[in-house]
Amino acid sequence: MPDKTPKKLNPDQIETFKRDGFVFPVPALSADDVAYFNNGITRAEAHIGGPIMGFEGKYRANMHLLCKWANDLVRHPAILDAVEDLIGPDILVWTSRFFIKEPHQADGAAWHQDATYFDLDPPDMVTPWVALSDAPIESGCMEAVPGSAQLGQLQHQSGIAKSSLNLGGQMIVEEFDQSTTVFGALKAGEISIHHCHLVHRSGGNDCDFRRIGLAIPYIPTSVKRPHGMRMPAMLVRGEDKYGHFDLVDGASQDFTPDGVTLHDKIFSMYVDAHKEQRVRHEAALS
Q1: Residue 211: which domain range?
Q2: Which of 5, 14, 53, 74 has CA 20 to 30 A from 102's CA?
Q3: How many domains, the chain?
Q4: 22 within a domain of the structure (yes/no)
Q5: What is the pLDDT of residues 34-63, one digit of tens each?
Q6: Helix or strand holding residue 190 (H, E)
Q7: Coil, strand, or helix at residue 211?
């Protein structure tokens, strides 16, 4: 992690991240920001004709390639400053993914680690989870095992977690200590940040309101994928001296023909890469 004067996080927050694998709450967005981004979601859902979480996951992923407001969100200076404090100044957006739970929706996510099917080397990905609504415990906020990022990669199995918001329905299938957990409750405009090896899960939304969050995995440009297909990423700060990914641009307007074509292509690539890495990771279980 960078050894310099922090831009956003204080030294205690950085030490908490190093020790626990996550830090929260971190103030990031103003009330005007939250309204702007929620208005963007409303307009996007009107355009596509349904909830972002529908359409087999197509529009919940990488909306920053389709809509300017989403591109503005993944480039928000307060978020990038916090990320820079943890992984340095040369930053790629690996992907972005909405986690929206409708009122009284039961779907959540089983115990998992984000890195499992990404094949990143080294696994230096950090993910701000951006609250665009309040996210109290009752809404199914993230529940995490402090210090679990230090366990490294645990074995997962896909297709066994029911009503899962994760693409593969995956969950951890080896033993780990879950006797002490912490709930990452947030207010609208706050973020939590977690390491890609943090063991975490979430429950359903028992609240009367729509719980809206966006997870944005960021990686330093030095990270590579040693196996499988070459993938795209978006440079959002600094420079890329390594060329491990094919750089793409975010949207400057909403739903342009070029943006739609790029988003379609990259969504298909991520689905294929995800399947490829699921097979590779789970080979030991077969």
Answers
A1: 11-285
A2: 74
A3: 1
A4: yes
A5: 999 999 999 999 999 999 999 999 999 999
A6: strand 190-195
A7: strand
